[in-house]
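Appendix B. Chain record.
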Amino acid sequence: MADLSELLEGARSGKGHAVYLVEGDEYLAKSAARDLAEALVPEHDRALNLVVVDASAGAREVASHLLTVAMFAAPKAVVVEGAEAFATEVDAERELGRARELWQAKRQRDAARRLLKLLAGAGWQLSDAAFGARGAASAAKWRKEVGAAPEESDKGWLQELAGYAEAQRLQAPPDDVDVLVSAVERGLPPRTHLILVAEGLPQKHPLARLAATKGAVLRRKAERRGRTIDTLDISEVVQEVLGPLRKRLSREAELELKQRLGDDLRLLANEVGKLAIYAGDRALIGREDVEAIVAPVREEEFFAVSEAVQEGDLGRALSLLHDELRRTQNATSVVLPFLGAVAGAVRRALADHARYASIPQAAGPREIPYNEFQRSVFPAVEAELEEKGQKVPNPFVAWLGYKRSRRRPRSHWRRSLVLCAEGDFALKTGADPRLLAERLLTQICGAR
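Structure tokens predicted for this chain:
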């Protein structure tokens, strides 16, 4: 496995590789690819000799960029972002998310091409992509035939994308990876370099093998030394943003930042940049700066709370509560959203209980295994939620909800919802937040 500093040194000295594969976290991988490209191509030549394209353009177009000799006798680099799209099997959820990001970034052509390639595998037309429009595919059909379903909030941009692609007469690029592989194997023009950026490519993929044998493979990922968010190493992100500004992030500020934002490195980098501006002339950014301007967006703990409540796992629920309380001295600011997560879990349990009690195949005394549930019960769940205009969950997630709904009688969840309402009122009228939350969890998750 290559080392970034060594690759940069070789690139600057004119000993760059013909092909690079940079894998890992999107933020770090793109950052490393940018550094490599700038090391390969001098600044005064980048306007013409540095090309950045999305893999959705297709392997044939990438190959044409590589084989076009640079106008001036200078190094040339072609950076291909999202190269995981070249894989035979792709993560449909990730590809749909990537198309969404490209569209929001005003890269309409790249977004349309990427989505069209995803839909081509299902044999769909452009009209099918206009989610929410008359005659377009439903969320259930998306999930069944494409492998991922858009959300209600996606209707706007998907309909715009379908119209744009039709007006531009765009089509999905062909699966012609062999053209790109052959171009590199035959030999690129002198001092021409291909930089592939991907979250990951299978080791047996032709481009991955090509990079391993004729170039360099670089993996960029923020490491964790343990399971908790505190152990995530974000030093590289912090150094990249604050290093040129000669500023530092205190240890306490770093911990608070990770607690508020989680492991989204792009978001972390953006917020560190804002903190640098907020700090002004100060060289050290402290915890009080993070608390002043960084809004907490982490949600995974509250999803875990919801799961623990529905499972009736009191020990885990209390542990999650205490973990949150240790992170701040203001217990009320923790318990209020925590109480919201508990109430949400109770409402979902009530809804699941009512739903599966009304489906004959699910209402019997025997607990149905997953395959049978997916075949005999889930279609009714899909139909109900689509009729109500609600998001249809993954079948496995729905099955877990079905299993949890059977563990407690409906009366338990009704009583629990009342307890949540009483707890909310007590918290807002001066009750001790820690004791209130512990008592509530004990009442909901305690003895059956």
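Further analysis of this model is presented in Appendix C.
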